[in-house]
Amino acid sequence: xxxxxxxxxxxxxxxxxxxxxxxxxxxxxxxxxxxxxxxxxxxxxxxxxxxxxxxxxxxxxxxxxxxxxxxxxxxxxxxxxxxxxxxxxxxxxxxxxxxxxxxxxxxxxxxxxxxxxxxxxxxxxxxxxxxxxxxxxxxxxxxxxxxxxxxxxxxxxxxxxxxxxxxxxxxxxxxxxxxxxxxxxxxxxxxxxxxxxxxxxxxxxxxxxxxxxxxxxxxxxxxxxxxxxxxxxxxxxxxxxxxxxxxxxxxxxxxxxxxxxxxxxxxxxxxxxxxxxxxxxxx
Length: 283
Hints:
By secondary structure, the protein is an alpha+beta fold. The protein has helices spanning about 1-5, 10-25, 55-75, 100-115, 130-140, 145-150, 175-185, 195-210, 215-220, 225-240, 255-270, 275-280, and strands at about 30-35, 40-45, 85-90, 120-130, 155-160, 165-170. The protein is globular and about 70 Å long.
């Protein structure tokens, strides 16, 4: 950044702004400081050590995005002259974990709001991505953001030989990640390894995050063998999606998958949520 930053009158506002964002989002693994030359940045760990050699690929992508984000707000010229801008974010979440993905999508949405209000020099934004979950986050609009939804369009880019073709969509072409998880269950593919993760995430999202329900309380509504199967469902789904385990302890066969899918349905029935189950299964 040395040569590029020589034209900047003061880099301290950018340092302060980036560090404020890192702190606000609870990202404490490194921060930005002014280097000895006075016109360059350096990245330091919480203990003050130089972070340059230990940054992960995701952290490098993240700090690069934060720098670009602040450059959008101002000028890289000593004169401070700014002009109207069209901004392109080209797959900005490559190599990022889910926490940073959320931060990046939140910051981009803040720019959406500024454009919608007519504030600042940015007049239009293009966001390109291959990441479905980032797409879900950056396109989600709350009740107070309906005006933003009116000002956007969706396009699908497809490679055809040496050319890329654009197709305009009347509505958001990507379903929500929650609906995608139910598609895994609907498929009833007993050999599909991702069904373990789908079951766990559906139960976590719908009952734990939305409903505030405890897994033990849910299992206690079953009796005898069904109760054991219910507990095994949560245990199996968690193990199947988070770790590599030994076959001598857990064996996943077609019969066991069928059992778990049956108890999965009965959980919704016991919790008074059978209509939701039927709706998501397309019944």
